[in-house]
Fold this sequence. Notes:
Helix content: 40-55%
Number of strands: 16
Amino acid sequence: MLGIPVGEGVTKSETRLPLRRQAGAPVGETTAAVRNREGTVAGSGEGAARAGSELEELTQTCRNCPIRKAQKSLVGAMARAQTMAEDAEQASHLKDEFLATLSHEFRTPLNAVLGWARMLGSQQLPPDRTGHAVAAIERNAVILAQIIDDLLDVSRIVMGTLRLAQQPVDLVAVTEKALDAIRPLAATRNVQLAFTGSPGNRTVSGDAGRLQQVISNLLANAIKFTPEGGRVGVFVESSKYYVEVRVVDTGQGISPDFLPHVFERFRQADDATTERHTGLGLGLAIVRQLVELHGGTVHAASDGVGQGATFTVRLPTAADEAHLGPTAALGDPRTAASTAAPMAPLPRLDGLCVLAVDGDAEGRTLTSAVLTEAGAGVTAVASAREALQTLAVQRPDVLVSGIDLSDGDGYGLIRQIRDHEVQHGGFLPAVALTGYARADDRARILLAGFQVHVPKPADPAELTAAIAAVTLHRRANEH
Length: 479
């Protein structure tokens, strides 16, 4: 309450002073006990109402003053700037991770191509291995070509230059063709494929090659994330207005947090520092763009991690072509060739026992061939579990491990080995052979417990020299 001593004069205009109102009281009901010379309360009745009105006007004026507006604008601008900075930081992080993954995805098949080519060029392979080497080079060259095609597709999509050669397409026939192409991959991973196509399916208007690419990408994604012994089913059904293709797997599923991002470019559910699931994170993004260019939709569903996933593509039938894009032919992709210098003689590893661990079958076979030709005895396995089982029954002279293992990564493997050595003694020299070639990758590899980092593609002489270097002390003791 505002108190003024009795007897002091108070004019009517003085009731315009801002008054403190009681907590919770409306502005219009603010009153103050102010007494005049006669001792009666001044400002009651009509005067009090006028004072409340003027106070409300003053409050509104303060709310609308330029300084208050400027402060609000500044706060809003700072919030937007913070959001933009966070978005830029996230984009930069995704770019760095993508470039690291891209480097790895190129280096892994390049390792097989260059390794086998140099083995052939040096005439160090027995005749019965020549055919295998040529086949391995061809397989990995196809993988490289596919990576380049995916990158070019993304570029065309972003630039708006991708065109469709439209014609009536039977999705059952396209799906069967995609299944035939993917069966070898499913067989190597022991994943069962099943197909159901309802009779009398209607055709869609589109590019048969691009639609096969859509289905192939979905199948490859399903097989990639389905464990050994799992199942991938494909269903093609049609109605009057659309044809639906569903790819259902019993794989690892998709977490609710990642599900909204599953079709974004360069996004992967797995951390890029593990190599259990390789890839550029482009396959599903290309699927979405191609489906939308055909006027269709694609949807992903999963009940969560470990519950499998379902991808559903819906395309309008040929009778409903209003949303289909223009027709045009695609240009031919370009290819490049390179030459390699003759391979240097391999350092000898006679008498050494090597445990080679690599989740990539091609890389594992090549490493075994290179080290065998150098005189070493090689035990090759695909997983950390198999490596630890091998170490329980035999003691190799050196470990050569990738970071890409079928049940985890090389970091975890080498840590388990080093922890065991702390408790039980001994020391196993270790060489990391991996497609991760950045400086921080090398630092992390050495910190984890490896002695040498050999990036892919590795020259066979470089790999054997690295093994010879880390086992030099052991071999010297034997002599």
